[in-house]
Design a protein that fits this description.
It contains 5 helices and 7 strands. By secondary structure, it is α+β, with helices and mostly antiparallel strands. It has a domain at 17-135: 3-Layer(aba) Sandwich (Aminopeptidase), CATH 3.40.630. It has a 7-stranded mixed β-sheet with strand order 1-2-3-4-5-7-6, covered by helices on one side. A hairpin with a 3-residue loop joins strand 6 and strand 7. The two termini are 14 Å apart. The model has no long low-confidence stretch (mean pLDDT 88).
């Protein structure tokens, strides 16, 4: 697996999940709150993904891609599952590896689709993508101390707490890292 605009698939080939790149024009539309009634198929957007819970993410990614278009293959992708009519969530990196070889992951699953293993498979897919890129040495995750489900998931993959940070949008976050 390499960091390209092609879909990323999990290491286990038996799953029907993939992480599909979102075109910058669609990210821009979501950032502005544009009505997306004409989207169908794998690009169908749930009210959660187009709603206020994700609005800040879309604005941030739209501005990021306007400034750094080369980040497009790295950042937020749709989590698509065969048989589902819309994306079940989002997963990706916050950008390309920094000068120290660190990438930060992010994922979120639509509340209507939670508890089905999608976050786990998306995390495994991101970790595999990071491991396959020679520039990546460290994978970081930042998680609210109140997000027990995400913390429990990350802990199963060897992430270790290395500090805390304050995020303007999300508040206090625990910073966790694992070698790629």
């Amino acid at each position: 697996m390499t960091i390209t605009d092609a879909p990323w698939r999990p290491p286990a080939t038996s799953t029907a999940l993939r992480l599909e790149q979102i075109q910058p024009a669609l990210i821009d539309a979501l950032a502005t709150g544009a009505v997306l009634d004409d989207l169908t198929g794998s690009e169908a957007i749930t009210p959660y993904l187009a709603g206020p819970e994700c609005a800040g993410l879309w604005r941030m990614r739209s501005a990021q891609l306007a400034h750094t278009p080369a980040d497009a293959p790295w950042v937020t992708r749709f989590i698509l599952v065969d048989g589902e009519t819309a994306a079940v969530g989002l997963a990706g990196f916050h950008g390309q590896p920094d000068e120290n070889g660190m990438v930060e992951i992010g994922y979120r699953v639509d509340p209507a689709q939670r508890r089905r293993g999608y976050a786990r498979i998306a995390l495994e897919t991101l970790l595999a993508a990071a491991a396959d890129d020679a520039r990546v040495r460290t994978v970081r995750a930042t998680i609210s101390p109140e997000n027990h489900a995400s913390r429990a998931l990350i802990d199963q993959y060897g992430f270790v707490a290395v500090g805390e940070q304050w995020d303007e949008e999300d508040g206090l976050e625990i910073v966790l890292e694992v070698a790629a």
